[in-house]
Amino acid sequence: xxxxxxxxxxxxxxxxxxxxYTKGTSTGGDDLFDEPTEEETxxxxxxxxxxxxxxxxxxxxxxxxxxxxxPFDFVSGTLNINRGVMFKADMKGVEIIGTxxxxxxxxxxxxxxxxxxxxI
Length: 120
Description:
Layout: E1 16-26, E2 37-58, E3 61-71, E4 86-91, E5 94-105, E6 110-119
Antiparallel strand pairs: 1-2, 1-4, 2-3, 3-6, 4-5, 5-6
């Protein structure tokens, strides 16, 4: 009788938590001297998988691109993520903050989002 090791037994297909959000400014009130504050409006928090697809360093700017995969039930909801929406996630100590460049869906219930990150 042959035995084997199942290396995929404990693999989680979506090991990270990601947040899609928009940024806006609020003046805080009617007082002219109130400082404007930056607010985040959360559109979707989801479990996801993240894969780095490219990186570059040129003229003092660091850029990186990521593929983000997450499940979504299109029968019970509508996906309200568009190009230009912000994304953030903590990938086991690596913080990812970027902008949605493209989005694609699958008939199998999954979503693929392409994220671009830049730092100066």
